Amino acid sequence: MRLQLALDMLSSDAALQVAKAVEQYVDIIEIGTPLIKHEGLGVVHLLRRHFSQKAILVDLKTMDVGQYEADFAFAAGADLVTVLGVADDATIAGAVASASAHGKSVVVDLINVADKAARARQAQALGAQFVGVHSGIDQQKQGHSPLIDLQAVREAVSIGVLVAGGIRLETLPEVLRLNPDIVVVGGAITGAGDPAAAAKAIREAIGR
What we know:
Blueprint: E1 2-7, H1 12-22, E2 28-31, H2 33-39, H3 42-50, E3 55-62, H4 66-76, E4 80-84, H5 89-102, E5 105-109, H6 116-125, E6 130-134, H7 137-141, H8 147-156, E7 160-164, H9 172-177, E8 182-185, H10 187-190, H11 195-206
Helix pairs in contact: 4-5, 6-8
């Protein structure tokens, strides 16, 4: 089980500072959608230079031209990119083709997909390496948890399953019980008074 750090701030300098502080505790560094939109591909190059041994996920949330967007992210140094599950099959297939060409991976994000288990099976058939069970920030504000759907998706596919959305130390036991492959934590680390201590506690709870 891997721990993914979600960097959703708007400054590449701030993202770099937090990532350096918690580097030893995380497996994947995520360049969040707000950060990639605000800073562009420069932040991918920046984090790749500083973290050559870490996997980097760029949360593109691609909705169209899947191969085109995945191509430039992988060329910049990404190891994983996200494409939306509500996108057309051809968009997902395009991102998968790019990942295959670069030796990288695609995460199909199931945010706002009505039947997540069914779409997860389709994503697997299209060649995606991972599906993401994700409650967005707006959904979290309405009380939605990714745990509602995690078990059904976990049982539906044999590819990797990523879970994201408001996860913190207190909710980890329930998350771990459902055995996702990647646990994504953002605000519980980046918003902590001591991000390194927060990341260490979460890392210890997950195990190595």
